Amino acid sequence: MFGLQILFFIILAVIIIKVIITYIKNENSPIISIKAKLICKNRQVRTRTDSNGMITRNETLRLKFQLDTGSELELTVGTCIFRNVPENQWGTLTFQGTRFLKFQWENGVVEK
Q1: Alpha-carbon separation of residue 22 from 14, 36, 40 (angstroms)
Q2: Domain span at residue 52?
Q3: pLDDT score for 26
Q4: Residue 6: inside a domain, yes or no?
Q5: What sign does the dihedral 77-78-82-84 (CA atoms) show?
Q6: Tell me: the pLDDT tens digits for 29-62?
Q7: CATH number for the domain including 53?
Q8: 104-110 long-range contacts, Cβ below 8 Å, gap at least 24?
Q9: 26 found inside a domain
Q10: Residue 85 lies in a domain
């Protein structure tokens, strides 16, 4: 039993450290605005049922952009942004590290 508690705290510590490292990298990244086209919206839904019959649902929403340089960039976003960014639309994408900040096109804008 004691070994499981140690394992749990080690896993928890690794997760916390990973989140902190990602946050620091994003904070130290420059804010970049570049011409881009939203080429794909990806919704990944995971549903789990535990031994008590409780159902949990986890949804990950990603937007994949093609940059004017030819490269692709995939960003994880929230529901409101996912719904409001039009697919196959060229505009100006603003991001910082792995953070979506804004997508502005001719007829609108979506900001975080």
Answers
A1: 12, 24, 24
A2: 31-111
A3: 82
A4: no
A5: negative
A6: 899 999 999 999 999 999 988 888 888 888 999 9
A7: 2.40.50.660
A8: 108/84, 110/80, 110/81, 110/84, 110/85
A9: no
A10: yes
